[in-house]
Amino acid sequence: MDFSQKITARVRALHESATLSFGDRVRALKKAGRDIIDLTAGEPDFDVPVSFRQGVTNAMAQGHSKYLPGRGLKELRDDIAAKLAAENNIMVDPESQVIVTPGSKQALFYAFMSLIEHGDEVLIQDPYWVSYRAMVELAGGVLKTIPTFEKEQFKITARAIKDAISVRTKVLVLVNPNNPTGTLLDRDDL
Ligand SMILES: Cc1ncc(COP(=O)(O)O)c(C=O)c1O
């Protein structure tokens, strides 16, 4: 039986992440003995700090391996709200405005699922990180890309954003610094 036919059209329409498929290819070539410089997933070139590893080990030893509140540990949400206030001048209520997720991919997916109605447009600068299109399309939205150019250091402009806005625009994704260009907008541009 061909089980792929049981998978929804929604999921079948998705394209595989180019980063992950290149990553698999690099791993296979390295295993076959090829000397490859891997520029796929952005792994840091340092190990997880010892204090983090020790913290996780201690927590497991102390039995902290049960279900947590759905929004995440209260103490962690309080610390996140305190960090946002002190370092980013963003005031949030840790009870109702902070959710802990296993990565930003998860958080972005929740945000798109919560904000996008069928056919809503999401604006993003191009080039953009691979997973945004799949996330927006899964949520029923339409990704509308705004080109940026090497001769302008890949900076997105307010003019280009204004021109791209339509009656269906619901979300602007502004990644700063951007991946993959590394472009950092200055305060005036922001
Ligand atoms: C722009 C951008 N958004 C989201 C992600 C996903 O982040 P995470 O690994 O925390 O899910 C990445 C990862 O490289 C990224 O570069």
Task: Please give the structural blueprint.
Elements: H1 9-12, H2 18-31, H3 50-61, H4 74-88, H5 104-115, E1 121-126, H6 131-138, E2 142-147, H7 158-164, E3 169-173
Parallel strand pairs: 1-2, 1-3
Helix pairs in contact: 5-6
This protein binds pyridoxal-5'-phosphate.
Low-pLDDT windows of residues: none
| Sheet having the most strands | 3 strands, parallel
CATH architecture of the largest domain: 3-Layer(aba) Sandwich
What is the molecular shape?
globular
What is the radius of gyration? 20 Å
Distance between the termini: 54 Å
Taken as a percent bin, the fraction of beta residues is: 5-15%
Alpha plus pi helix count:
7
What is the N-to-C order of secondary-structure elements (H for helix, E for strand)? HHHHHEHEHE
Q: What's the pLDDT, averaged over the residues? A: 93
CATH class of the largest domain: Alpha Beta
How is this structure best described in words?
- The chain has three domains: about 45 residues, no CATH class; about 30 residues, no CATH class; about 90 residues, Aspartate Aminotransferase, domain 2 (3-Layer(aba) Sandwich).
- It is about 40% helix and about 10% strand.
- It contains seven helices and three strands.
- A three-stranded parallel beta sheet has the order 2-1-3, sandwiched between helices.
- Strand 1, helix 6 and strand 2 form a beta-alpha-beta unit.
- The site of pyridoxal-5'-phosphate has 7 residues, from helix 5.
Q: What are its keywords?
A:
about 190 residues, mainly alpha, Aspartate Aminotransferase, domain 2, 3 domains, three-stranded parallel β-sheet, 7 helices, 3 strands, globular, binds pyridoxal-5'-phosphate
